[in-house]
Queue: 2 jobs
Job 1
Amino acid sequence: MERPRPSRGCPGISSLIPNSWKVEEPFDYHCSLIDVADVLKTDLSNIPGQVPYIKIPESLVGYWKRKINEILPPAKRRIGLVWQGNPDHQADMFRSFPLSSLEPLSQLDDVQLVSLQFGRGSEQIKQWTGSKPIYTLPSDIDRSSGAFMDTAAILHQLDWIVTSDTSMAHLAGALARPTIVLLGFTPDWRWLLDRDDSPWYPTAKLVRQKTIGQWKSLGQEAADILASQFRKTDSTNP
């Protein structure tokens, strides 16, 4: 029988055991993930929002720092983009949006747009009409280091991530990367309502859809947020 896999990237988790395994090692408690917050009596006043709570090996971060600089031209600021979640998700039609909605980001000065979209949805890059190109990354990402490992290391090489409500939003938030999440009119419950921040992810900014099906204005709002952030950064570091 295989041994439990040690977890070195997340404090508080000593080992990971796939649910397909027969568990023979002793344990004190068992709880489904969805019930943990209830069992721990977590509410808005005590949500554990200390980030980052996932750690990526420095060697992998260093590798992708070198690799990114090899495959992409120099840039003052790099923005990672995700627009499509899993189309098989029951609510995907309300959370994924057309890549064209992000065209306002191409109007920003001194930015490089980088696709973090792999698989379905990435074909939309061929129809991109923004004023700046979208650069793509190697297709074999995450195949050798493990699920999301390369992607997590790549996020450390980006200044901002702009994403739909998919796994990338949660990965970026857990890594404490500056992130803008574009949310549909009726979002997943974890994003709550009537707020532009997330108690789980202090580095995330939320942009909410005001009319079902209309995403273009959210892309413009994301661009306006970034423009404001860039002005602040430039004034602090002239």
Job 2
Amino acid sequence: MTRPLTISFFGSSLVSAFWNGAATYYRGVIRALAARGHRVTFYEPDAYERQRHRDIPDPDWCRVVVYAPTAADLDRCLDEGARADLVVKASGVGVLDRELEAGVLAHRRPGTLVAFWDVDAPATLERVEGDARDPFRALIPRYDVVFTYGGGPPVVRAYEALGARRCAPVYNALDPTTHHPAPPRKDWAADLSLLANRLPDRERRVDEFFARAAALAPDRAFLLGGAGWEDKPLPVNVRKVGHVYTRDHNAFNCSARAVLNVARDSMARAGWSPATRVFEAAGAGACLITDAWEGLDDFLAPGREVLVARDGEEVARHLRDLSNADAAAIGAAARARVLAEHTYDHRAREVERVLEGGGEGWRRSA
């Protein structure tokens, strides 16, 4: 960028990953932007007990403002945030989302850019395309740019068809200062581990790729981390460890022979949607097994940097065939690839290019 920007970012939570899978994505992008000279304020609601389950204190690279989940306190923050060069409204804040979607535009000041940052674009598009009366539909053309967590060309085309001035994917990535190899923990030792919160549009795929694999490999040890699984019936060779704080993700990823990624339904259908966990595991040098989705080979090479499975039977087969040496080699290759091409510094540079209009001549409309 020609000059540093002030940025107001309205999202679910920067300081807590409790029922908030986007936390490490927010941290990675914002920390990288801050390292490049931009000054960011993150506005998050006091909701869903996230402040009671903080992973990090307020960081020195971002100002954090926690507001009461009321219209009055939100309006105060919108008025303050509108003084920035760039105002961002992220999807899925979970509190007063519709008010935020309209409010960042209503409070816009001359010369300010306003962006919508969609951290679940396939689901948002399914909702909007299925309901012509959805209030967000009319707002899309009024945003200066739509950033998305993923989705690739299909998501870009869909947003542009809805009138978006510009749509640009900013994929998950690695922050090597926070996710890296770590000593394993004996209590988390397993043949295959999965870290995922229990969500309706993920559970069916977890049943297939994780629970069914465990049933087909009764001699292997499986470990499940994440919130919401307490009452879920699972095979006897699966241990549940509940919510895993982000400070423990490295140890979690380094304690099993392989780590499983399971995409949510909408992201698997859209493709080009690597989850945060993909880059966390690769950054830790873990051997990753992922469900199959289009666009994967833009990020990691199947068979060399990641193992791909189309169902639970293939997951179980990978575990039977995977030696410790092969697992280590795949993990090392994945780590080298993401360090070279997929860090949050790479993503921050992409954001700057979009804001500058790099490559496609985008400029803010009057």
